[in-house]
Each structure stands twice: as structure tokens, then as C-alpha cells.
Amino acid sequence: MTVIDRLHGTLEQLSLTTIGDVLESRLEAAGKETPAYADFLEGLLSLEVVSRRDRNLQTRMRMAHFPYVKTLEQFDLAFQPNIDERQIRELQTLRFVHEAQNAIFLGPPGVGKTHLCVALAVEAIRAGFSAYFITTQDLVADLGRAARSGQLEKRLRVYLRPKVLVIDEMGYLPIDEMGATLLFQVVSARYERGSILLTSNKSYRDWGAIFGDQVLATAVLDRLLHHATTVNIRGESYRLRERKKAGLSTLPTVDSVLSEASRDASEGSRRRHNANTEEV
């Protein structure tokens, strides 16, 4: 067995895979440049450190279960001029993560709430924190299954462990009594221990209807908002903007749909009347 073979064996035992991948090329370059031993060793170890950091980042990104990866640089603040940019830049410092505070993004669908939450969670992961993304409905459904199978305490740890928990789409669908209680448990257990990034298309005064229980909604809000930043977004949908860019018409409004349905119904009634008249 050659010295190179023995080196590869040792590197494999130490799990220094990146050094193993570049060993021959680095030895060849060192033979030509004759660097100091310390410099040569430092260069190899630095490669391994960078590679491990990148692999760790990729692993934490994968474990976060993001629906997509977006950054703050990709968010068009000019398209939503009513957003307080100072709020976003302050959140970008991640002080809220260090202090286990929350951030709640309120606004209609399509204005960028989820984008901002994902982007902030990505920033947290890059800074060495852990993050996890889930919709409200998936969260309560998952915990409901765990509760029915006697595994609630174990499953709760999945949502308590990450330093940043993103809960998306609060209020898009109502939550039953059990789901509301389970969500309260998550919020209560994370209170002053870990950060929550939450999106909702409902204002706080409407949360009683979401939970079907004003008292429980108040208890959830009390813990969420005690140490929190609220970002209100009122503007046009990004998705509608993209449709316009593509030369497509905007989506029909509710009023236009109802008007068209009414016209169709009237036309159908007129035709039936005419047909009956002709038969007579």
C-alpha cells in the first residue's frame, strides 16, 4: 500500500472527505510551489471547513421544508411602497431571533407575506440557526393525528426544536376546537423560547372567528404579540402583476362573476319562456 493510499484511508476514517477529493492535486501543486508545511496544512483544512459549512447549510435548508427559497434581495419593496422598509431591515438583523421574538405579516393573498417569512428564515439559517416551515392547516392536522395516536408530546418537539418556526396561511380556513387548542400549545410552548414568523390574511379582530372561540384567540394573540413586530401589507398581488406582464387579463372579480351568472340565468329563463310560448 502506497503512502497516498494510507493517507486516503486515514482521511476517510476522520471523515475529511473534501481533503480526500483534492489530495493528489494539492500535493502536485505543493511539489511545484514548495509552500511551508503549515501553509499547506492550513489550506487543506480550510477547504474542509468551508465544505462542511456548505453541507451543513444545505442540510438545514432541506430540513426547513420551504415551499421555495426566496431572499430579501428578491423582494420588490418598490412594488409594495406601503411596507415600512425599516421594519424589514430591522428584522433582517435577526435580533428578533436572538431575543425569541415574533413577526406577524398581515395582508391579502399574493402581496408577499410568505416570501418575506421564507427570506427571513433563510437569513436565520445562513446565520447558523435552525428553521422549519409549515402551513397552519398542515400543522394542526399533523398534531391532531399525533394526539389521536398518543404521540402528541413527541410530535410537538418537531415544532418546538427549531429556533425559527414559520406558520403560513393563518385564517385561510377555519380551525376546529381541537386544532385551535393544539395551535395554542405550540404558541404557548415557544413563548420567549423561540421565534415564530406567521402570515395571515385576517386582521387580529377576526381571529375569534378563525378559532371559533374568542377567549382562545385572545390567549394565542396575547403570547404571539407580547414580543412581536406586525408588518401590515396592503397592495396589489404579485401574481396578478405577473399575469399583467404576460399580457393576460386580471382575474375576474366576484361582482363580475355574479353579474355574468345573473345574465346567464336571465337568458336561460327567457329561452325557456319563449319555448313554452311556442309550444302553446
CATH homologous superfamily annotation of the largest domain: P-loop containing nucleotide triphosphate hydrolases
Radius of gyration: 28 Å
Give the total of beta strands: 5
The number of helical segments is 13
Structure, described:
With 280 residues, the chain is an alpha/beta fold. It folds into two domains: 3-60, no CATH class; 72-236, 3-Layer(aba) Sandwich (Rossmann fold), CATH 3.40.50. It is built from 13 helices and five strands. The protein has a five-stranded parallel β-sheet with strand order 2-3-4-1-5. α1 packs antiparallel against α2 and α2 (17-33) packs antiparallel against α3 (37-63). The longest helix is centred in the first third of the chain and has 27 residues, at 37-63. The chain is elongated, with a radius of gyration of 28 Å. The model is unreliable at 249-258 and 276-280 (pLDDT under 50).
Briefly summarize what is shown:
The chain has helices spanning 3-13, 17-33, 37-63, 85-92, 95-98, 113-126, 136-148, 152-160, 177-190, 207-211, 214-226, 238-245, 254-279; strands at 102-106, 131-135, 164-170, 195-200, 228-232. With 280 residues, it is of the alpha/beta class. It folds into 2 domains: 3-60, no CATH class; 72-236, Rossmann fold.
